[in-house]
Amino acid sequence: MLKERFKELQDRLLSETKTFYGETLVSVVVFGSVGRGTQTFDSDVDVLIIARNLPHGRIKRVRAFETVENNLMPFLKGIEGNGINSCISPIFKTPEETEKGSPLFLDMVEDAHVMFDRDNYFSTFLKQFKDRLHTLGAKRVWMGNAWYWNLKPDYKPGEVFEL
Questions:
Q1: Among residues 2, 72, 9, 75, which one has the least CA distance to residue 39?
Q2: Does the pTM exceed 0.85?
């Protein structure tokens, strides 16, 4: 039942996001535990939203997204009855900001679930990023209770490399 509820939440999130952003929406990507399919009853839904013409500044973007969250609130309240205490944790980027890169994209190489992707924008970006990591010999390593990336195992002091 847990996975089904999260699937329904993702479907509703996608529908509301597409309605809100319309033609400016480029990609919607779920990542983290929900993207991996390892969510628990208190997992949040980490979502990357790529859209053109976003307002400048995180606060303005979050405030605008409140419309989507408010529309999802009845469903979120409803699944609390099943013991699921989730929320939406959005990250907003324009295509130009995406092209600049982010450490956030490292783990997306492994666990992103692309729900919407106009013209395969983010899928193409992620494939190119994954190819670059492969060329560098980068390895995702489990240490303790978390993953980290060894981006260039044969790194030599003073060497400069780019992702």
A1: 2
A2: yes
